[in-house]
Amino acid sequence: MKGISKKWVALALTMSMAAATLTGCQSTETGKDTAAATKEATESTEKQTAESTEASGYQTTYGSKQFDDVTITVELFDRTNAPKGSTITDNKWVDYVNEQMGKVGIHVEFVPVPRSDEVPKMQTMVASQTAPDITITYSYSTAEDYFNQGGTWDLSPFIDGEDQAKNMKAYLGEDVINIGRNPEKALYGIVARRSSTAECNMFLRKDWLDKLGLDIPSTPDELYNAIDQMVNNNPDGIKDVIGLEPWMFYNLRMAFSQTAGDPIKSQIAGGDDSITEYYDQGSKEYYRFLNKCYNNGLMHKEYYALNEDQFKSYVVTGTMACFEANVNYDMEATRGHVYKTLKENVPDAELVSIPALKNVNDGKQYSGGYCPGGLIAFCPLTASEEKVEACMTYLDWLCTKEGGFTIYHGFEGENFDFDENGVPIAKDVEYNATDKDWIRNDLFLTGNAGYFATADEFNASVAAEAPGYEDHVIQNYENALSGTVISSPSYTSPSTSNLITDLGIVRDKYKVSCVTCPEDEFEATFAEYMAELEAVGIQKIIEERTEYFTSMQ
Predict the structure, then answer these.
(1) Nearest 5°: phi and psi at 282?
(2) Alpha carbon 446 to chain centroid distance?
(3) 536 in helix, strand or coil?
(4) Is the pLDDT of residue 476 over 60?
(5) Among 34-43, 81-90, 142-151, 264-273, which is the least confidently predicted range?
(6) Span 479-537, pLDDT tens digits
(7) Among 31, 63, 437, 469, which is most buried by a count of CB atoms within 10 Å?
(8) Which residues pair with 107 in a beta bridge?
């Protein structure tokens, strides 16, 4: 890509990120200047895209080209979970990557970024022109904004040709690849393919329900009654039971949603919690439900301050009645085998996930689901043309059996065996946890939740990693997708990237105060929340999303 000033890009990105981080809103004059610069960059990028596409001779199918010892830098999430004897950048799997990529003359140098600090770290690196050749994020709006400002490569000339990136196209599929395109069909990033769109579940102590003579709750009112009974009339005589922990609440919110039953409105409302809670008027009743639980002693008084270890401690010691978390949270080895630990401490305990609750407005079940795409990988303009070609070759390799499949599943006979249906089944879950599982998801950039041909194959493999609990795991995934699944939309409106930081600040404040305020102050507190979202400029996002999703029908 030629003709665009890297100096201008650095300046534009620095200005953009500073505005997003510090204020989220711009003055009228600043907005005009930025808009003019953006228009200039966009026109330049479109021209370059056309020229590159016309003359594209890039070879990005793994094995189709021998590179001349090209080094590419790749961002890698660091979760500070490396086992003894390994580091995030010095381990057998990093060695394996370079052993394989070395066959085509590519060396991969990983750049660790703290997972908890991913977005601000990425913003700093991009603005300072120090970002890795492959930079990753879960924020599609951020990646698209960088491209619109002329700061990243259009990847379509490297991907769209008939002989280009064949493995990537075969594994990801056209629908997933297109998530990373803008309306002009430029490809601003490569989106990972999810093996399963199941997102979260509500878990509760069924043994307590059985002793109380209560059925699995199917409505919010039944859930409240069950929690109240488990806390205030605990059948095992346990005091200080935590009734409900809002560690992650997506499906519970769906039970109050007023947009879930509308295909257009549900998409307008999706994508970010602040947008959902402003646009979906059912959010008010969702918060009122949590406020009632809190003020009636059914939640930990400082629930908002609990870290994950503290949260898990209440679950495994048998003092948590109900919580919502990731779809298979209670069974994941990397989470510490929460359910197994609970059973060791309280042998009679039975923890189950439950189907989606019936919506209070229409009586139907709705579940939240992930977008079919996971994280997005993009190439800053600081990467040379040759490096981008090598980067796409690397991502193509990750879509092969020798690439992503091996990184995720390991080696046959050591980490897994194939069952009679050809599904990879882990041989030793505990060994795998410290051998590969701690890093496999973060190295496998083109896949989320594993390398599998189908969701059923994924379910079978995951279930097999929990001997004795296979049916429990399958039930977790079935319950997570019960009723009508409302998947998170991939579209992010143009104004989102500029406003999302300030919207997040507002939500972080009110997602606590709306729950913890006295019941007689709830109406006023929630009204303040909506007013502050309006003051930031959320209506602009709603207008853009409404126009987009209406036009797609």
Answers:
(1) -70, -15
(2) 13
(3) helix
(4) yes
(5) 34-43
(6) 999 999 998 887 778 888 789 889 999 999 999 999 999 999 999 999 999 999 999 99
(7) 437
(8) 71
Nearest alpha-carbon partner for 247 in 290, 288, 218: 290
Q: Where do the structural domains in the chain lie, given as residue ranges?
A: 6-195+374-403, 200-369
Q: Which of 42-46, 81-85, 405-409 has the lowest mean pLDDT?
A: 42-46
Give every CB contact of residue 31 below 8 A, 6+ residues apart in sequence: none
Q: Is the pLDDT of residue 442 over 70?
A: yes
Token code pair at residue 91: 């381990």
Mean pLDDT of the chain: 88
Q: Give me the phi and psi of 358, to 5 degrees please.
A: -70, 135
Length of the chain: 553
Q: And the tokens for 105?
A: 């003359």
Locus of tokens 């080209």: 65
CATH number for the region 6-195+374-403 comes to 3.40.190.10
Burial class (CB in 10 A: 0-12, 13-18, 19+), 184: exposed
Task: Yes or no: say if 529 and 506 are a contact pair by the CB < 8 Å rule.
Answer: yes
* Distance set, CA 371 to CA 193, 331, 486, 491 (Å): 9, 23, 9, 10
Strand partners, 75: 111
Predicted pLDDT of residue 139: 80
d(CA 523, CA 541): 25
CB 376 within 8 A of CB 180: yes
- Residue carrying the six token digits 């495994």: 316
Question: Quick one: tokens of 377?
Answer: 């990988």
Token representation of residue 185: 């069909």
Q: How far apart are CA 505 and CA 499, in angstroms?
A: 10
Q: Which of 193, 191, 184 is nearest to 53 (CA)?
A: 184
Give how far Cα 185 sits from Cα of 61, 63, 178, 376, 377, Å: 21, 27, 8, 16, 17
**Contacts (Cβ under 8 Å, ≥6 apart) of 91:** 82, 439
pLDDT attached to residue 140: 83
The CATH number of domain 200-369 is 3.40.190.10: yes
6-195+374-403 and 200-369 agree in CATH topology: yes
| Rounded distance between C-alpha atoms, residue 332 and residue 340, angstroms | 10
CA–CA separation, 395 and 403 (whole Å): 9
pTM recorded for the entire structure? 0.75
> Which tops the pLDDT comparison, 401 or 25?
401
Max alpha carbon distance in the chain (Å)? Answer: 75
* Own/partner long-range contacts of 23-31 (Cβ < 8 Å, ≥24 apart): 23/502, 24/498, 24/499, 24/500, 24/501, 24/502, 24/503, 24/505, 24/536, 24/537, 25/498, 25/499, 25/502, 25/536, 25/537, 26/498
